[in-house]
Structures are given as structure tokens and as C-alpha cells.
Structures
1.
Amino acid sequence: MMWVALLLTFLVPALVMVLFCSLLPGADETPRWRTALAAHLDRLARRLRRERPPTFDPFLALHVQERLGAVAEHVQELERDPHTWALAERVIASQLAYDELLAQACRLAGVEVQPHAKGDPAERFREEVELASRGWAW
């Protein structure tokens, strides 16, 4: 009986202390009150912050249009000359460059660039139509 009293005397306070210490945040853990306060302040800042329209550089759009035209003309020249050395690799590389310029033009014009496989002709056609509908020409 004496052993039980000694165990309870030392074991119960130790268990209570372990449980209490487990509730305290560790060195790497952020306290909950600080996380809640940060979330509240972030919501308040978003409400107070004004949305600024993105700045649009017309010269950048003109540069992209010019490059699109040059790469499109280059692809057409390659397709017209069947005797070009390593024709397939050159056409593929040029079309990938054209696709990348199309994606950049879509981002400038506000067209959504959807995820697709590299060299997807359907996506290329969709992007060209969307850009043409927004007044882009190359």
C-alpha cells in the first residue's frame, strides 16, 4: 500500500506536468494566438488595400507581335524549302519558340493560357484565334 501511495505521489504530478508541457508550443511551432492574429490582420489589410490595375507596356506588346511575325515567317520559309538540312528539328524548334511567344502574348492580352502538351496544334490555334479576336496581328 505504501508503494501505491508513493507511486501516486510522484507519478500523478509528473503526468500532469507532461500533459501541461505538451500544450505549450515548441521552439519550431508558432503560438496559436499569433497565427490567429496574423490571419485577422491579413484579412484587414486585404480589405483596406486597393487593387491597382496592372500596368501595360505597349512597346512590349509591339515587340512580342514583331517577334511572332518573324518566327511565323521563319517557320513558313522552312516548310517551303524541303532540302534544308535537319528540317524536322528546325521546324520543331521554331514551332516551340512560336508557341512560347504565343503564350507570352496571351499573358499580355489577358487570355488564359491552359496547360497543354508542347507543340499542341489545337491549343496553338485557340490562342491565335483569341489573340486575333482581341486585335492582335502579326
2.
Amino acid sequence: MPKIDLSTLSRSTGSSYPASHDAAMVGRSSLRIGDAAGLTQFGVNLVRLEPGALSSLRHWHEQQDEFLMVTDGALTLIEDNGETLLQRGDCAAFPAGVANGHHLINRSAAPASFLVIGTRTSQEVAWYSDLDMKVTVQDRVMTYTRRDGSAMDREDAP
């Protein structure tokens, strides 16, 4: 297996969220390691969160598993059952189809990072626990709608 030189990868910022929700991702960046390595069956990203930053909006997936491991610093996992402090080496997993909205927030004064690995499927639906929003993915194209499938307001549209 060839070594992946992380220093050669471009750091991604922002999100695919509709404009009114994209601002919540300020302070989040990631290295798309799986894409750089040509992986197609699962995604691998090394995500960095600056103090106060969120990993994502709280969500859960119908078909895709997620696994994460904190690689540096401390992060707070927020899910339906409450909050859990995760420190370097701590792991969490989110099986597909379990309606447990989750995300991480960096409540510390220093940057923190985590490795996230997730299934890739050609079709997917993910639900946002704190918003009237869902995303439907078809061949990596994301479409955001309200939970009932209706169009979002103009200011919420991607």
C-alpha cells in the first residue's frame, strides 16, 4: 500500500449545505484522504475543528455507517442521548438506519481533529435532527429539501 503524504493534500473548507446553514461550518476543514487514495467504497476524511466549530449539522444516515476517532485534542459529541466528551484515541460509531442525530463541537480553546470513515452508497437519505431539512444523494449529487420533500425557501436553497 503506498504511503499517503497528507502534506500534499488540499484542505477543504465550507460545506454543501444551503447558504443559510453553511455559515455554521466556519472553522471546519478537512483532508479528503479516501478521495486522494482513489477509494470508492468508503470515505475517509481527517477533519480539523477550530475552537467553537461544528463538524456538521446534527444528522443521521439511512444507509451509511459512520465511524470516527479523535486524533488530537478534545471534542464534545452531541447526540439524541446527550453529550459525551471525546479525547484523543476515543471512538464513536453511528450505524446506518439508527435515528440518532449527532455531530461534534470543539468547546476547547485549541484546535482538535478527528478521522471519520463512512460508507459510500450511490443513493442515500440523511435527516437533520434540529432542522426541517433532509438531504437526498444520488451519485454524489446532493439535493436539500424540507423533511416532507417540499422545496426549501429561496434563502435556504443551495
3.
Amino acid sequence: MHLDDGEDGNLTRILKASVEDLMKICGKYDIQTNEVFKELVFERSRYAYNDALEYFYTNFLTQINNLNLDKALEAIKIEGELDANP
């Protein structure tokens, strides 16, 4: 991806859509602190920019599933801590 005149808006739209889509799929992550989530956002944006978005989900399924599992384990851990401290 590259920035040409007038393309800033398109790239911004693609990046925002990638963040929103991946948050729906993987849960809410801070793009500033989670490098895996940040990489997925950039990769999804690259696929969208190149009109190949249908391949992104298959090619990055492992990373997407790992983020999902991290959120699920985090929720279980929090739930367990709440149950232990009535």
C-alpha cells in the first residue's frame, strides 16, 4: 500500500473497517499495546486494499483463533476470580 494524492481517506477507511471487523471477531484489543492485533489489522487492510479480502480469513485463521482463545481464557480467569471472592 502506498499514499498517493487523495488516497489518505481510502486508507483511513480501510484501516478503520479492519479494526472494527477484527474487534467483532477477536474481541476488543488495544492496537497500541497488542502487536498481534496490530499486525492483523495491517494485514487485513492490505488484503482489502488489494481486493483479496476473501483470502485473509483463511490465511490468518491461526492468529485470529489465538486472539479469540486469549479473550476466552481471560474471561474465564476473571470469572474464576469473582467466584473465589464472593
4.
Amino acid sequence: MPLEDIAVSVYDPRHDSSPTPNVQALLNEIATHLEALLERGEANSIDLRGLPLMPGERDALRNALGRGEISVSVTALGEAEIYETAFPGVWWSQHRSESGDTVAELIEVCLQPAMLASHPADVGNGLERLRELTDSDSTTA
């Protein structure tokens, strides 16, 4: 059979509204992690940069998960954008270096991403500064 007689079709997931097998598998994994969070308080994350996603699949996953009400920007050794998806407890976070390169992109299944929690040492420093502020206010009154 000559090569020109072989039927070839090109599949482009960017123009398909149904989830690809990769996206469907990720949605199932996220649902399993969400069950673990509810039942055992177990947080999990999925490193999207470590997955062999086809063109358009990251956008398809982003569209399937949607956006919720909470969105946070963090500036610390680069920029980070973290938002809760339309599914409470499922967070999309993207971290960039100071030069703007994406260094991490995660789906985090947790009550709140660890990056947003205050470190105990920082809380202690804040308490000291607040005490200094309240002590100085009481001495000037």
C-alpha cells in the first residue's frame, strides 16, 4: 500500500471540549486526594511540571477545575499566584523565579496551601514587634 493511501488524522486537544485521558486521570486523582483530605486530613499535591501533558491539556485541566473565590499573590524570591479552584480544597499554585521563569506548578489538595501559613518563628517576631509597639504607646500616654 502506498504511503499516500494511508489515512492520517491529526488530533488537537485544544479544540476538543471533552477531557483527554490524561486530564480525566488527573481529575480522578484529585477526587481521590480530596476524599483523603476529608476522611483523614491528608493533604497531597500533584506536580504538573513533572507530567507528560500534551499541548492544551494544562488549559483543559485549568478549565475543568475553574476558579473559586480565593486568589493570592505572594512576592518572596519571585512571584507566586495561588488560587482555589471551583472545588474547595483544591488549589492551583504557580511559582516563578525572580527572572519570571516558572519553577513550580502544583495542584494542591489541602485546607490551605502551606505557603500561606505563617511560620511560628515569624509569628514570634510579629508578637515581639507588637509588644514593642504597645509598650511604647503606654509609655507615651
